[in-house]
Amino acid sequence: MRPIPRFGTLAAVALCLIASLSAQKLPKKPFAPPLMTHMPSAEVETGYLDDAPYRIDVPHSWNRSLVVFYHGYSEGPWSYHPTHPLLDHVRPALERGYAVIESGYSQPGWAIDEALAETESLRKYFIRKYGQPKESIIIGSSMGGLLASMSIERTPKLYVGALDLCGAVGPTYESFNRRFAWRAAFDAYFPDLLPPLVPPPSSGYPEPPAETEATLRRIMDALHTHPDSALALRNLMGLHTDSDVAHIIRYITFIVPDMQHKARGNPFDNRNFLYTRAGTTSTAEDNRLNDMVRRYAADPAARRYLNDHYTPDGHLTKPMLALHTSYDPLIPGNTLTLYDHIVADAGYSDNLVQKYVHRDGHCTFSAEEVGAAFDELVLWIHAGRRPAPGLLR
Q1: 100 near 119, Cβ under 8 Å?
Q2: Taking the mean position of all CA atoms in its chain, how far away is CA 370?
Q3: What pLDDT, in 10s, does the model give residues 84-123?
Q4: How many Å is the Cα radius of gyration of the chain?
Q5: Which of 5, 68, 332, 355 is deepest in the core (most CB within 10 A)?
Q6: Would you give the DSSP letter of residue 285?
Q7: How far is C-alpha 184 from the chain's CA centre?
Q8: What are the tens digits of pLDDT across the range 234-254?
């Protein structure tokens, strides 16, 4: 199992739950029986189901309830090792007596369709083998947070609640278009430093190459050489350091072509994006940027793909507690704001609560913090005691 990279303000060596391998179509796995491993706290089953790796942990003192875990975006194939401890994002549930299941998905990248279908297949497999749980709760981190909200919206009868950790929750077009617009701004300040943001249709929109340290160094060198442009980008993106800017731009340089490849066209559009910066008392730099940035139009069919993967309907009929760090350079804490409006418009605002912890970085929660949030969610589900929004104490 891959550890959670720590994306902090000083050293963001990797994005949350992003593997180091390049995205690729995974080959079919030959049939092999699952591996059963006896661990001090649980019986662990690992194997492949529907060409997706999976892991099941059943604690020795099982409380007959289940946690379904969705991991986040991964550039490369996911894998599980039965003797490795569970991630901090889900281990507290196991320690509280819950069985835990998690699919590694058969495809990397923005694997929304695969993640939902293969996790549901794994849930049904678990029931056939281990029995019907008393109740099931979802935990999802990063992209998995979006999958958690999707699962509640689409299949509410299967779950009693969800814990969203640093989730990319809300309309995908909103967060992805913003990132696309940021890369266009970077290109305006540093033209021809990175590959074209939108390749010609004749390219066929191939799979993206892997993120590399060479790309990161090239971006960092440019920012250090032009501190005024670096400051403008930090203010535009709401980031604290040049290192954060460099890591986010490198990530965007991977994920934009990944989405273009999946959508078979360019789904992004910055024609109506007005570039404004926080922390400035002058509009001169904003005017200059808006005048010089290149504008791109989305391909209608590709835009439909982006909207379908995923635009929420706000029918959050079960409790969902969202937890964020106060500074997250990858998925800002205010990401949930638009989803909150959608949920309120649908009439389910009482089922959504956001809390935060005092920490920098993407998904950098401690196991103790996740456990405290999980306890609040369980109390909400069983006793109807809705958590107070705000600081997790």
Answers
A1: no
A2: 16
A3: 999 999 999 999 999 999 999 999 999 999 999 999 999 9
A4: 21
A5: 68
A6: H
A7: 22
A8: 999 999 999 999 999 999 999
